[in-house]
Amino acid sequence: MQKSLLIVFLGMCIKVSIAQSFNLQWIACPQADSTSEVWFRQDWKLKDYPTHATMTIACTGKVSAYINERNISTALWFPARSNNDGKPICITLDVTRFLQPGNNVIAIWYAPSWTHIERQQVAITLHARYANNGYTCLQSDENWLTRPATTSLTLDGGEKDDGYAYGAKWNSDDFDVATWQSATAVEGPSLPYSYYFAGYPAVKVSKIQTPRYFDVVGDSVYYQFDKAFKGQVRVTLRGAKRGQKIQFNGLTYTCNGELDEQAYPRFAIKDVYRVLISGDKDFKPEQIQQVEGLEVVPYFHQSYQY
C-alpha cells in the first residue's frame, strides 16, 4: 500500500514539475466578442529537421491545431468538454513529423465553449530538439497574429459560417497580413488546470449516416434519418450563388459561389433527426447534391503522437 502511494505521489510531482516548465503565456484576440471563434498564427523558423518536437496547447474552449496547413490531430477537435465548461485544459502532442527546415506556420482555430467573452483563450509552447542536441522553442505572446474567424457561435448553440469571406489561406504562408492584428497577452486562469501528456479527451465522427428519405415542401426540404443522434449535418451544394444563404440544423451558411461547396458546422453539436434545409430567395432544392449525418462522440485519444 505504501509503495502504491509513493508511486502516485512521484507521478504527481513529475506532473507538476513538467507543467511548471511549460511557463505558459496566455493570449487572446482583442477583437473577439461573445460569439467569436478566433484564428491565431505564428511563423517558426527551424535550421534543420528536429529529432523530436512537442506542441503544448492550453485552452479554455475547443481547438483545431495546424502546422504547415496539416491538422496535427486525427480528432475532429479537442479537448472534449461540456457546454459552459471554461476550465483550462493543457494537452501535449508530438509534432515532429509536421515540421521542416526553414519556415513553419503554426496555426490555431479556437472556439469558446459557449457564447461569452473568454479573457484567456489559448497558450501555446513548442519545443524542438536537433540531432546535435541543439534546442529551440516558441511560445505564444504579443508577436502572434490573430483575427476573428469567419465562423462564429450563435445564441442557440449553433454556428454561422461565412463561406464567402472564408480565409482559405489563413493557416498558410500565403495570407493577407493586413486583416490580422497582434494578439493580447493576458494572465493565466486562476482555475486549476487539467494536464494530458499520453492522450487527451477529444471528439470524433463515429458514423456517417444517410437520410432515409426527403420531402420537398415549397422552397424547403426535409431530410429524415433512421434514428436520432447527436452530431452534425454536412450538405454538399452545387450551383449556389455567391453570397446566398442557407440554414439547416442550427447552421447559417453563406455560400462562396464555387461550383461545388460543402456547408457544415466546425464545432457545434446538435440533435439530428428530421432536418429542415431552407434558404433565401436564391435557394433552390435542386442545389442540394448530398446530405450526410455525422454522428459525433467524445473519446479518449490514446496516441501521444497525434
Please give a structural write-up:
The chain has about 300 residues and is mostly beta strands. The protein has 2 domains: about 25-150 and about 170-195, Galactose-binding domain-like (Jelly Rolls), CATH 2.60.120.260; about 205-300, Galactose-binding domain-like (Jelly Rolls). The chain is about 5% helix and about 50% strand. It is built from 1 helix and 22 strands. It has one helix at about 1-20, and strands at about 25-30, 35-45, 50-60, 60-65, 70, 90-95, 100-110, 120-130, 135-140, 145-155, 160, 180, 185, 195, 200-210, 215, 220-240, 245-250, 250-255, 260-265, 270-280, 290-300. It has a 15-stranded mixed beta sheet that branches. Strand 18 and strand 19 (about 250-255) form a beta hairpin. The radius of gyration is 21 Å and the shape is globular. The protein starts with a helix and ends in a 5-residue tail after the last strand. Residues about 1-20 have low confidence and may be disordered. Keywords: Signal. This is Bacterial alpha-L-rhamnosidase N-terminal domain-containing protein. InterPro entries: Alpha_rhamnosid (IPR016007), Bac_rhamnosid_N (IPR013737).
Task: Please give a handful of descriptors for the protein shown.
single chain, 306 residues, mainly beta, Jelly Rolls, 2 domains, 15-stranded mixed beta sheet, globular, disordered N terminus
Domains counted in the coordinates: how many? 2
- How many runs of DSSP E, i.e. beta strands? 22
Major sheet summary line = 15 strands, mixed
Task: Please identify, by name, the CATH architecture of the largest domain.
Answer: Sandwich
Main structural class: mainly beta
CATH topology of the largest domain: Jelly Rolls
CATH homologous superfamily classification of the largest domain: Galactose-binding domain-like
Radius of gyration: 21 Å
Helix content: under 10%
Uncertain residue ranges: 1-21
Count the DSSP helices: 1
Taking all residues together, what is the mean pLDDT? 91
At the first level of CATH, what is the class of the largest domain?
Answer: Mainly Beta
Strand content: over 45%
Distance between the termini: 35 Å
